[in-house]
Amino acid sequence: MSDIKTKVQGLDPNVQARDILAVVAGTGNIYESLNVVTKRARQLAVDLKHELNNKLQEFTINTDTIEEVQENKEQIEISKFYERLPNPSVIALDEFMKGEIHYRYPAEDRKKK
Length: 113
What we know:
Elements: H1 2-7, H2 20-24, H3 30-57, H4 73-84, H5 88-97, H6 106-112
Helix pairs in contact: 3-4, 3-5
Protein backbone atom coordinates (compact mmCIF):
# COMPACT_ATOMS: atom_id res chain seq x y z
CA MET A 1 0.00 0.00 0.00
CA SER A 2 2.93 2.33 0.55
CA ASP A 3 3.36 2.12 -3.22
CA ILE A 4 0.08 3.98 -3.68
CA LYS A 5 0.98 6.60 -1.08
CA THR A 6 4.32 7.36 -2.72
CA LYS A 7 2.80 7.38 -6.19
CA VAL A 8 0.09 9.92 -5.32
CA GLN A 9 2.34 12.34 -3.44
CA GLY A 10 2.76 14.53 -6.55
CA LEU A 11 -0.84 14.08 -7.71
CA ASP A 12 -3.11 17.13 -7.48
CA PRO A 13 -5.97 16.24 -5.09
CA ASN A 14 -8.36 18.60 -6.87
CA VAL A 15 -10.75 17.38 -9.52
CA GLN A 16 -9.65 18.39 -13.01
CA ALA A 17 -11.42 18.49 -16.34
CA ARG A 18 -10.41 15.55 -18.55
CA ASP A 19 -10.55 15.01 -22.27
CA ILE A 20 -13.39 12.56 -22.90
CA LEU A 21 -11.71 11.19 -26.02
CA ALA A 22 -8.60 10.35 -23.99
CA VAL A 23 -10.73 8.51 -21.42
CA VAL A 24 -12.58 6.61 -24.15
CA ALA A 25 -9.36 5.67 -25.95
CA GLY A 26 -8.63 2.83 -23.53
CA THR A 27 -11.84 0.87 -24.07
CA GLY A 28 -13.65 2.50 -26.96
CA ASN A 29 -16.68 3.21 -24.77
CA ILE A 30 -17.06 5.92 -22.09
CA TYR A 31 -19.27 3.70 -19.91
CA GLU A 32 -16.78 0.84 -19.92
CA SER A 33 -13.96 3.24 -19.09
CA LEU A 34 -15.89 4.72 -16.19
CA ASN A 35 -16.82 1.23 -14.99
CA VAL A 36 -13.14 0.24 -14.86
CA VAL A 37 -12.21 3.45 -13.04
CA THR A 38 -15.08 3.02 -10.56
CA LYS A 39 -14.11 -0.53 -9.68
CA ARG A 40 -10.49 0.48 -9.14
CA ALA A 41 -11.56 3.46 -7.00
CA ARG A 42 -13.58 1.11 -4.78
CA GLN A 43 -10.55 -1.17 -4.40
CA LEU A 44 -8.37 1.80 -3.44
CA ALA A 45 -10.93 3.12 -0.95
CA VAL A 46 -11.18 -0.24 0.81
CA ASP A 47 -7.41 -0.68 0.89
CA LEU A 48 -6.76 2.81 2.24
CA LYS A 49 -9.48 2.49 4.86
CA HIS A 50 -8.15 -0.88 5.99
CA GLU A 51 -4.61 0.49 6.23
CA LEU A 52 -5.73 3.56 8.18
CA ASN A 53 -7.74 1.46 10.61
CA ASN A 54 -4.76 -0.84 11.18
CA LYS A 55 -2.49 2.12 11.93
CA LEU A 56 -5.01 3.71 14.27
CA GLN A 57 -5.60 0.38 16.00
CA GLU A 58 -2.08 0.66 17.44
CA PHE A 59 -3.20 3.66 19.50
CA THR A 60 -6.33 2.15 21.02
CA ILE A 61 -6.33 1.64 24.74
CA ASN A 62 -8.79 -0.87 26.13
CA THR A 63 -10.28 0.36 29.37
CA ASP A 64 -13.39 -0.64 31.22
CA THR A 65 -14.64 2.91 31.66
CA ILE A 66 -15.52 5.41 29.01
CA GLU A 67 -14.37 8.49 30.85
CA GLU A 68 -12.46 10.45 28.25
CA VAL A 69 -10.78 9.96 24.94
CA GLN A 70 -7.08 10.61 24.92
CA GLU A 71 -5.68 12.35 21.87
CA ASN A 72 -2.31 11.38 20.58
CA LYS A 73 -0.38 13.72 18.29
CA GLU A 74 0.92 10.84 16.19
CA GLN A 75 -2.61 9.58 15.72
CA ILE A 76 -3.76 13.03 14.61
CA GLU A 77 -0.87 13.34 12.14
CA ILE A 78 -1.66 9.94 10.61
CA SER A 79 -5.31 10.94 10.20
CA LYS A 80 -4.37 14.27 8.61
CA PHE A 81 -2.02 12.53 6.18
CA TYR A 82 -4.80 10.24 4.95
CA GLU A 83 -7.22 13.17 4.70
CA ARG A 84 -4.78 15.02 2.43
CA LEU A 85 -4.49 12.10 0.03
CA PRO A 86 -6.43 12.54 -3.21
CA ASN A 87 -9.84 10.96 -3.50
CA PRO A 88 -9.66 7.31 -4.64
CA SER A 89 -11.58 8.18 -7.80
CA VAL A 90 -8.96 10.81 -8.72
CA ILE A 91 -6.19 8.25 -8.13
CA ALA A 92 -8.02 5.59 -10.16
CA LEU A 93 -8.64 7.92 -13.10
CA ASP A 94 -4.99 8.96 -13.10
CA GLU A 95 -3.93 5.28 -13.13
CA PHE A 96 -6.35 4.57 -15.98
CA MET A 97 -5.08 7.49 -18.05
CA LYS A 98 -1.48 6.31 -17.57
CA GLY A 99 -2.42 2.75 -18.59
CA GLU A 100 -1.57 1.25 -15.20
CA ILE A 101 -4.91 -0.54 -14.76
CA HIS A 102 -5.27 -3.98 -16.33
CA TYR A 103 -8.81 -5.18 -16.92
CA ARG A 104 -10.49 -8.04 -18.71
CA TYR A 105 -13.95 -9.18 -19.65
CA PRO A 106 -14.94 -12.40 -17.84
CA ALA A 107 -17.67 -13.23 -20.38
CA GLU A 108 -15.11 -13.27 -23.20
CA ASP A 109 -12.78 -15.43 -21.11
CA ARG A 110 -15.53 -18.04 -20.71
CA LYS A 111 -16.19 -18.08 -24.46
CA LYS A 112 -12.52 -18.76 -25.22
CA LYS A 113 -12.46 -21.89 -23.03
